[in-house]
Amino acid sequence: MFSAKGGVTVVQRLIGWLAVFALIAGLVLDLGATWLIVEVALGTIFGAIILLRIIAAAFSRLTLPASPEPLPDRELETITYLVPLKDEANIVASLIEAIGRIDYPRNKLDVKLLIEADDHRTMAAAVAADPPSWFEILPVPPGEPRTKPKALNYGLHFARGSIIAILDAEDHPAKDQARVAAAALKQGGPDLAVVQAPLVIHNGRDGWLARQFEIEYAIHFALWLPLLARLGIPLPLGGTSNYFRRDWLEKAGGWDAWNVTEDADIGLRLARFGGRSATITPPTHEEAPARMTPWLHQRTRWMKGHLQTWLVLTRQPFKAARGMGWAAFLATQLTFGGALLASIMHLPLFAFIIYSAATITFETWHAVLFGVGYSSVIVAAFFAKARHANAWTLLTVPAYWILLSLAMLRALIHMKQWPTLWEKTPHGKPSLPVSPARQVVVTPAQHGDNVIQLEFQFDDLDRADGKPRR
Q: CA-CA distance, 332 to 271, in Å (whole number)?
C-alpha cells in the first residue's frame, strides 16, 4: 500500500468515476449552479496557494534562516553519498571533482557511484577519472524497474554512513553543505528525519526554458520549501542534495523503486511515520534542460511521479492522516495536490479566459484572481533572487504554465501505458570549470562474455611545451 507498483486501486477508480458522473449530472440538471460551485472551488484552492506564495515571499524577508552551530570534526557522523549514474560518461569526471571539493573529513566520507552494470562507457569513464579511495564504484544489477530509486536501494545496502545523502550526476554542492547538514541533523531533535539543501540553476543564460526553470526552482527551494518546513507541512523533497538520517530512512522502507519521483514520495512517507523535514541554506548548482524535448521528457516524468505519490497517499487517507496528523495531511492536499490540480487546469483555464474575453463574459473576480496570482509569481521570483529573471522571462511566465499542462497531459498517458518509464535527462554543462589537466577518451570493446578491454588516452594540456602527452 506504500508503493506505486499497484497503480490505481479499485476504490480510487470508483471514486474518480463517481466524481466525473456527478459533475456531468450537475451540468445537465443545473448548469449555472454546478458551474458556480466549480468556479468557487477552484478559486478557493488557487487563492489559498497564491496566499501561501505571498506569505513565503514575505517570510523570506522577515526572518533569516537559522544556521546550526558548527561541529568539530570528532563529532561529525559518517556521510554516505549515493550517486546513481546512467549514460553520464561525459560528466562523471566533473562530478568526482565537485564532490572532492566538499569540506568534510575524508575518513567520514563514503561515496557510492551507482552505475548500471551494462553502462560500460560511464563505468569506464569513472575508472579513468581515478577517484579517491573513499569512492566506490558499484555496478547496479540489471532488472526491472530500471529506475533511480532501485539503484538507491541497492546502494543503501553497502552504505557505511549513518547519514545518507543523494547527489545527481550534474550536481556541484556547496563546499560547506555536508557540515551544515550534519550539524542540522544532530541539533534538530530525534524526529528530524531529513534536511533539504536548495537547488540552484546555473545555466539560466542558455535560453527561455532554462530561465523559466531557474525562476521555478528559485521560488520552490528558496521560498516555498522553507515556509512548509516552518509550518510543519511535509516536504515533497527534491531529487538531490537531501540528507537523511539512516535509521529514519530504513524505518520508512527506503525508496519506492516503482515511483519515478522517489524524492517527493519518500518526503511524504517519512511524515506518515512521524519524521520531520527541514531545509538548510548551502546550495547545490544544477543544470536545467534548455531545449523543449529534454524538458518535456523530464517534466512528464516528474508529473507522472507526483501523480503516483498522490495516489499512494490517498489510498488509505484516514490512516495517512493519522500518521502525519490531520492538519499536515490537509495542508499536503492543498500544497502538493493543489500543484497537481494547477498543472492540469492551466490550459483549460487559459482557454476559458480567452473565451470569456472574446464573448465579454469575463467576471471581475476572475481577472483579480489571475492578476494577483501572476503578480505573486513575479514578486516571489524577485524575493527568491532568480538571477536571470529578466523582464521578458517574467512577462511570459503564463506561457510556461501552458507547457506544464501539456506535460501533465503526456504524464496521464504515460501513467496508463508506461508507469515506470524513466526518460533520461541528458546532462553535460558543468556549473564550475573543471581542470583541463586531464582529459580522457575512453574506447570500450567487448571481448568474450565478461571481459572488457579499455583503451585510455590522457592529454595533459598544461605542459610547458603545449604538446599533449598521450
A: 11
Segment 69-106, tens digit of pLDDT: 899 999 999 999 999 999 999 999 999 999 999 999 99
Whole-model pTM? 0.87
pLDDT at 440: 45
Cα distance between residue 164 and residue 195, in whole Å: 11
Query: At CB < 8 A and 24+ separation, what contacts does 343-348 make?
Result: 343/303, 343/404, 343/405, 343/407, 343/408, 344/405, 344/408, 345/42, 345/405, 346/401, 346/402, 346/404, 346/405, 347/402, 347/405, 347/406, 347/409, 348/405
388 and 300 in a single domain? The answer is yes
3-state DSSP assignment of residue 123: helix
Start-to-end CA distance of the chain, whole Å, equals 56
Say whether both 297 and 401 belong to one domain.
Answer: yes
Asked if 268 and 312 sit in the same domain, the reply is yes
Pair 101, 112 in one domain: yes
Identify the pLDDT of residue 429. 52
C-alpha cell at 88: 553520464
Q: Are residues 30 and 108 in the same domain?
A: yes
Q: Which residue has the cell 501561501?
A: 52
Q: Looking at per-residue confidence, does 66 or 380 come out higher? A: 380
Contact indicator for 149, 259 with CB cutoff of 8 Å: yes
Cell triple for 412: 496521464
User: pLDDT > 90: what percent of the chain?
Assistant: 75
Q: Which residues of 137-150 are buried (b: 16+ CB within 10 A; e: fewer)?
A: bbebeeeebbbbbb
pLDDT tens profile 180-207: 999 999 999 999 999 999 999 999 999 9
